[in-house]
Amino acid sequence: MQPRNMSMSGVVDLAAVKAAQEAKAKAEQARAQAAQEGGGGAVSPADLVIDVDEAGFENDVLQRSTEVPVVIDFWAEWCEPCKQLSPLLDRLAVEYNGRFVLARVDVDANQMLMQQFGIQGIPAVFAVVAGQALPLFQGAAGEAQIRQTLDQLIQVAEERFGLTGLAVDPDAGPGAVQEAPEAPAGPHDAALEAAVRALDAGDLGGAVRAYQNVLNDDPANMEAKLGLAQAELLQRVEGMDPQRVRREAADNPADVSAQIAAADLDLVGGHVEDAFGRLIDTVRRTFGDDRNAVRVRLLELFEVVGAEDPRVTAARRALARALF
């Protein structure tokens, strides 16, 4: 899924962030209601492991991922390692008690999904969080490694997207999916909607102002932070000649402005590691005000991608090594 009116594949989906924030409010209300009713209305443990095909992928995985992280196990009957991994994932899905849902995909029956995820071999395990696909691991993995990966996934899903998981009732029958109450309207919904409309209309200046208005009143608002960072980035690349910018960056590796402009284009094109690597290399080659200008732009791009993204974590470490 990509942001509306943006070409930033692999960065952040603002619509998914908003959906996730609404899902968090629904999940919190559902958990409270389930506790008051002794677990009534929650999902059954049997609903934590599902078989998914191409026809049901959007509802069973993409839509569900706005409520809870969905871990996808790509397997096949003839795959011997799958016969070890799949039962382990089934057991962990129940043990984690609603912190994630496991979706099993038989690759022989769902070749299109295998191609869409770019899978070259199985077993392969992905996650979808708020509509965004993340590779977890491929091939055999030990239980300790899988637990660590799942814990990190759950932490990122909660901290970045507000996904608190599903309430589970061990006495509920299969298919007893809870009716989630409507999320309460937020105090800044109108301003955020105005920002989205401005983005849809190509009014980047209007979107920047709208997001800034929200942040003036609520500096911690995640959707406004992400929206402002992306709108400002799109403003910067608007009107650029990509070929000229890349040629100047290639011909002038010491030109800070040229490297910064090329990094912005890299990120807009979804080449996150290339953008980060370009600026970190420039930090190594520069000093004083030039180095600080590159560092500041790199921190701004970190904000676009999101602090918990593993690509940002790795780039922060690389930046620290370059600076010190």
Please describe what this structure looks like.
Pfam families: Thioredoxin, TPR_20. This is Tetratricopeptide repeat protein. The protein is built from 13 helices and five strands. It has 324 residues and is of the alpha/beta class. The chain folds into three domains: 14-161, Glutaredoxin, CATH 3.40.30; 185-238, Serine Threonine Protein Phosphatase 5, Tetratricopeptide repeat; 239-324, Serine Threonine Protein Phosphatase 5, Tetratricopeptide repeat, CATH 1.25.40.10. The chain has a five-stranded mixed beta sheet with strand order 1-3-2-4-5, sandwiched between helices. It is globular, with a radius of gyration of 22 Å.
Write the layout of secondary structure elements.
Blueprint: H1 14-36, E1 49-51, H2 57-63, E2 70-75, H3 80-95, E3 101-106, H4 111-116, E4 124-129, E5 132-138, H5 143-161, H6 189-200, H7 204-217, H8 222-237, H9 242-251, H10 256-268, H11 272-285, H12 288-305, H13 310-323
Parallel strand pairs: 1-3, 2-3
Antiparallel strand pairs: 2-4, 4-5
Helix pairs in contact: 6-7, 7-8, 8-10, 8-12, 9-10, 10-11, 10-12, 11-12, 11-13
Protein name: Tetratricopeptide repeat protein
Domain Thioredoxin: 43-155
Organism: Streptomyces ziwulingensis
